[in-house]
Write a structure and sequence with these properties.
Layout lengths: L3 H10 L7 H13 L1 H27 L4 H10 L9
Helix pairs in contact: 1-3, 2-3
Length: 84
């Protein structure tokens, strides 16, 4: 039986995607029996969905010149005034 720490690590790092079928089965069994880890997985899934939705919204609402403005701001000399 896997420990909660092992399951949480696999879930939160994405290592589960590359694990063997036996390891993935062990995680599924653990999640079926452990309410805390199952709740943790639901929270991770909800955060992933929220982040994806936010990314889509930001992409849709971003001004066309956003990338150029960010590059300009990052490469600007410290203390230089903002350009319009």
């Amino acid at each position: 039986m896997m420990t909660c720490k092992e399951v949480a690590t696999l879930l939160s790092t994405g290592e589960l995607d590359h694990a063997s079928w036996l390891r993935r089965l062990a995680v599924r069994l653990h999640l079926a029996m452990c309410d805390r880890c199952a709740a943790f997985k639901r929270q991770l899934d909800a955060m992933a969905r929220a982040a994806a939705a936010l990314g889509r919204r930001l992409e849709a609402d971003a001004p066309a010149d956003l990338e150029a403005r960010v590059v300009d701001r990052v490469t600007r000399t410290p203390g230089a005034p903002d350009r319009p």
